[in-house]
Amino acid sequence: MAYLAIPSQEPTTMPRPLLLLFVLFFSFPLVAQEPDRMEKMWRIYRDTEASNRKRLEALHEIVSSMRSMDLDSSLTLAKQLRTNAKEFKDTLMIGLGYRDMGLAYLMMRSSEPALACMDTARLYYSVRQDPEFLRDAGALESNVAFALKNMGRMDQAREHYRKSIALHERAKDEEGVVYCYSGMGRIHQIQGHSDSALFYYQKGVDLAEKLDMPNMVGGGYGNMGNVYAETGRIGEAIDMTYRSLAILEKAGEEAGVAACLTTISDLKRTTGDKEEALQLLQRAYRMYEGADYRQGMMTAGSSIGGMLMELDRPDSAVVMLEKALALEREGDVKDLMGRTLLSLGTVYRIVGRAADAEKILKEAITLAQELKDAPSEAAALASLGRVDLELGHADLAVVHCAKGLSIADRITISTERQSNCECLYLAYKSKGEGMKALKFHEVFVEVRDSLTSEKSLKQLTQRDMMYTFGKEQLADSLQFASDLAQLESERTIEALRADQNRNRALANGSWRHTPARWWWCVVLLRSKTPTRTIREGGRHTRDPSTSEPNEPALHFQCAQQHQCIRATQ
User: Fold this and answer.
1) How far apart are CA 405 and CA 379, in angstroms?
2) Binning pLDDT at 50, 70 and 90, where does residue 432 land?
3) Cα separation of 144 and 146, whole Å?
4) How far is 14 from 376, CA to CA, in rounded Å?
5) In the chain, what percentage of residues exceed pLDDT 90?
6) Are 373 and 337 in contact (CB under 8 A)?
7) pLDDT at 142 over 80
8) What average pLDDT does range 511-534 have in this prediction?
9) Which member of 70, 99, 182, 465 has the lowest number of beta carbons within 10 Å of its beta carbon?
10) pLDDT given for residue 463 in this prediction
């Protein structure tokens, strides 16, 4: 979650906040934390007097627990589960064996083998329609969606999320639906549909609270905090993040705590506490390393690189960003890679590696287009325009930044608008076209002057004190941001979108992009009208599942859904 703080001439090419990927982490049963139970499962599996189904179920639990410790062993045991299930002619367990194999491949970031195993598992689940098979089929669809999300195939991922929800509902498996809501929120967040992302995250939190799933409640609050941060609503972001932290600390979820620390680091950075922000990121990185959680290492490493750049340590920043990008490339984690590409391209330019910067930024633009991530594309174009200027290509800088400004204007994003206007000002100034340069300079100054962090600093200090002196009362005492939101109760959805994008500037460009993502508008109330209108922090918006095609922020491009690895449901 780090950002590149740039002088006034520098485009705001800073990563937007990372998402809390609780959907992935909390999907696995924590059997590894129960060595006695693990030993018990081994005894059952080896007991030839036990029923075949009971022995296979014990082996499945062993496979699930091994995923958190040793992926190679987990894959080997999953293959053994499939073989044994075939010997016993147990259709359900054969499908589960293939699904466990797919999950192991997925954790290894081998998406194609994972999908192949899951396609085979689907054939076995399709033979029956009873709740047991439907539940496993629903989990399978969510696994497929997660793999597709990692591959950047967002439309297909949503389709499988929708199938997963339908199957879980038919099986009356509400826990499975919780994971689906979280996955759907992630997809919409990646594509910049913040109101839709919040809708699904809130639905997941509400259902998780009903089912007493504290890990998913904490994860949901963290994810909502990141969305608020992306849209510049720092008060709400702070509230949600500290709620998440309190819940996850109590639950002893170290990876979740590390994710919260990453978000809090960005909040600290926003208010000028850069050294403290860096220390929080480094602490989170060490926690991920200790847990051998590679995806956390990717996101925290990328954020540390950005923070080092902001602290004027570009050479160290390059090392961390290249390390993070290598991990992301190894795992083909496209939804995280764009953020690192953009940051690295900016750092390359600043340290004088213009050719490398040009190459990496063009890759960032291509990836943003593939993911339909317009804000990231606009930010990358602004950075590429600055590289063009470094190389003496002012005309090309105008082409790139004019395109970036057009995208930013179309989706009304202030941060990327500022970056591209600044680039156009510098390009026209370089070309000696003073009047055109002045036009873009005026817009740049107008947006820049609207940035302020004084209010954010006051809110963050207040919530630090609340957290320190009364964690158990935190949920009741953090009312400030919600009170602010209630003052805007009569605003329409159009005003909401305009405000969300304008407020991106409040986060000093840090929250929207420049490109994105780790494991994280207002409380959504239940629908009250035939159009399923919901009240969001005093504003009215529509349930995205019923939105019309002319509502781009809520429009589902297909009947699509879910993103999570849920090994057992």
Assistant:
1) 9
2) very high
3) 5
4) 10
5) 34
6) no
7) yes
8) 34
9) 465
10) 58
CA dihedral 20, 381, 494, 528 (to 10 degrees): -30
Alpha helices in 11-110 (DSSP H): 22-25, 35-46, 52-66, 71-87, 91-107
Mean pLDDT on 32-37: 58
The DSSP-derived string for 89-114 is T-HHHHHHHHHHHHHHHHHTT-HHHH
End-to-end CA distance of the chain: 32
Whole-angstrom Cα distance, residue 142 to residue 27? Answer: 11
Amino acid type, 158: R
The answer to whether the pTM exceeds 0.90 is no
Helix (H, G, I), strand (E, B) or coil at 16: strand
CA distance 372 to 153: 10
**Among all chains, which residue has been given the structure tokens 């909502």?**
224
If you compute the radius of gyration of the chain from its CA atoms, what whole number of angstroms results?
24
Tell me which amino acid residue 39 is.
E
Tokens of 303: 């954020």
Residue pair 12/509 in contact by the 8 Å Cβ criterion: yes
483-498 tens-digit pLDDT: 433 444 444 444 444 5
Alpha-carbon 188 to chain mean position: 9
H or E element in which residue 536 lies: strand 533-536
Q: Within the chain, how many helices (H) and strands (E) appear?
A: 26, 2
